[in-house]
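quick q for whoever's on today - can somebody do inverse folding on this one?? i tried earlier but teh output was garbage lol. C-alpha cells:
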C-alpha cells in the first residue's frame, strides 16, 4: 500500500473510550462560545469503535479545512475503518478501507452560533487492503483491489464549547459500489458501501475572542483538559516473555515503531503541578522460534500520573515531566497460521508504570500541542505455551508521541 491502509490497520484501540470524554465538556462551554462569520482554518479529529448497526469497526478520521464565511467551507478528509470479510458465514479476516476525499461543507448555525448543523459531500479515492486473516482463511489466497473511486454524503451537528472548539457527531455514507475479490482464484463481488458515525472535536484557528493567558496575574488554580496522543512504541526487550520473541507489527514504521494511540483527561493545579489519567495501547507480534509469528499481543495501560510543568513565555511554552503507576492489560489475539494447534495463554492483568518528559506549546489560549517521550513498563504478566509452565513476563517500550490537550474550563479559587 502506498498510503492509508497500513496506517489505519493499527491495533484495535477501542478508540471510542477517549471520544466519550467529550461528554465531560458539554456543560462547561462559556457564554462566548459560538460559530463565526469570518474565515477560519480548522482541524477535525474523530473516531468510533464498532457500530451494532453497520459493518464498520475501529473508525479513525481527521480533516483539515477552512470555513469561508458563515455557511460555506471545504475540507480534505481522511478516514480509516475495518469491515469483516466473510465466506459461508465464517470470517476470513479484516478488510481495511481508507477513503481520502475532498469535501464541500454547508453549515447553518443556530442558537446564536452555539449549535451548528451541517451537511457535506465529496468525491475521492479509497485505498483497501485485506489483513489479519482468521483461521478459516489459513491457506486460502485472498486478492482484493488496491484502490477504488468513492463518493461521500453526510452531515452532522456540533456544539461550541469555546470560540475555537466544537464537539459533535457526524454520520457519513461511503458510496464505493461492488468490488471484485478473488478467493482461491474464484471471483466474487463485495459491496463496500458503508454507513458510519463518529464523535469528534473541531479545533479552529485563529481564535477570534482570545482568552486570558494561562499564567495570568490573577492565577488559574484549576484548568481541566482532555487530550489525545499518537506515535510510536519502540520495544526495549524482545525476550521479556519466555518462550517467544516480541517483534514489531508488519505495519511498524521503519520496521520497529509500533503504532500507539492514547487519551488523557486531567487538570493543571496552580502554576507548576497537575494530575492526569492516561490510557492507551499498542500491539506487537509473538514469534515462536521454529514456528514463526503465532499471533499478536495487545498491551493496554491506564495510569494516574503527576505532571510537573515549568511555564515559559507567559505560559505559552511549558516543558514538563510525568510519572505514574497504574494497571496494564496484555491480551493475546489474531492467531496466525504458524500458531494453529499451539495452545497459548498470554492474557493477563499487571502493574504498569511510566516516566517521561515533554514540551507543550499553546497554539491557542486553550489548545496545546505537545511532543513527548516516556518509558512505559507493564509488569506481572504471565504466559503459558502448550503443556509448559506458567512463566512470568513483562513488556517494556519507549513511547515517542505527538498530541493535543484541549483545555475546557477554568476554576478560580
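ok took a stab at it. sequence:
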Amino acid at each position: 500500500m502506498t498510503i492509508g491502509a497500513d496506517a489505519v490497520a493499527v491495533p484495535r484501540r477501542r478508540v471510542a473510550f477517549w471520544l466519550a470524554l467529550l461528554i465531560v465538556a458539554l456543560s462547561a462551554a462559556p457564554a462566548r462560545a459560538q460559530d463565526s462569520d469570518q474565515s477560519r482554518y480548522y482541524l477535525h479529529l474523530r473516531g468510533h469503535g464498532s457500530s451494532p448497526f453497520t459493518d464498520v469497526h475501529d473508525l479513525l478520521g481527521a480533516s483539515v479545512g477552512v470555513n469561508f464565511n458563515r455557511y460555506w467551507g471545504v475540507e480534505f478528509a481522511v478516514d480509516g475503518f475495518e469491515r469483516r470479510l466473510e465466506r459461508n458465514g465464517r470470517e476470513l479476516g479484516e478488510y481495511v478501507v481508507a477513503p481520502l476525499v475532498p469535501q464541500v461543507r454547508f453549515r447553518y448555525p443556530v442558537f446564536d452560533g452555539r449549535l451548528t448543523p451541517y451537511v457535506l459531500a465529496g468525491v475521492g479515492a479509497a485505498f483497501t487492503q485485506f489483513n489479519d486473516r482468521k483461521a478459516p482463511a489459513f491457506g486460502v489466497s485472498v486478492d482484493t483491489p488496491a484502490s477504488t473511486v468513492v463518493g461521500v454524503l453526510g452531515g452532522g451537528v456540533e456544539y461550541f464549547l469555546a470560540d475555537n472548539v466544537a464537539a459533535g457527531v457526524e454520520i457519513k455514507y461511503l458510496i464505493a459500489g461492488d468490488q471484485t475479490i478473488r478467493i482461491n482464484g474464484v471471483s466474487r463481488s463485495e459491496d463496500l458501501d458503508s454507513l458510519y458515525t463518529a464523535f469528534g472535536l473541531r479545533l479552529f484557528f485563529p481564535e477570534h475572542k482570545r482568552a486570558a493567558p494561562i499564567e495570568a496575574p490573577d492565577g488559574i488554580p484549576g484548568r481541566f483538559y482532555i487530550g489525545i496522543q499518537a506515535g510510536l512504541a519502540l520495544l526495549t526487550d524482545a525476550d521479556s516473555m519466555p518462550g517467544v520473541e516480541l517483534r514489531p507489527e508488519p505495519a511498524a514504521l521503519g520496521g520497529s515503531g509500533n503504532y500507539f494511540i492514547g487519551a488523557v483527561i486531567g487538570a493543571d493545579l496552580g502554576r507548576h503541578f497537575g494530575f492526569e489519567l492516561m490510557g492507551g495501547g499498542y500491539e506487537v507480534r509473538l514469534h515462536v522460534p521454529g514456528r514463526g509469528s503465532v499471533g499478536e499481543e495487545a498491551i493496554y495501560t491506564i495510569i494516574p500520573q503527576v505532571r510537573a510543568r515549568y511555564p515559559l513565555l507567559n505560559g505559552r511554552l511549558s516543558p514538563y515531566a510525568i510519572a505514574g503507576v497504574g494497571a496494564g492489560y496484555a491480551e493475546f489475539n489474531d492467531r496466525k497460521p504458524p500458531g494453529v494447534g499451539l495452545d497459548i495463554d498470554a492474557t493477563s492483568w499487571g502493574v504498569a508504570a511510566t516516566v517521561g518528559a515533554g514540551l507543550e506549546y499553546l497554539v491557542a489560549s486553550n489548545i496545546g500541542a505537545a511532543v513527548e517521550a516516556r518509558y512505559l513498563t507493564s509488569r506481572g504478566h504471565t504466559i503459558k505455551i502448550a503443556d509448559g509452565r506458567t512463566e512470568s513476563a513483562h513488556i517494556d517500550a519507549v513511547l515517542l508521541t505527538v498530541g493535543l490537550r484541549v483545555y475546557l474550563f477554568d476554576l478560580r479559587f
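fwiw Residues 1-31 have pLDDT under 50 and may be disordered. also The chain has two domains: 1-210, 215-413. so keep that in mind when u check it
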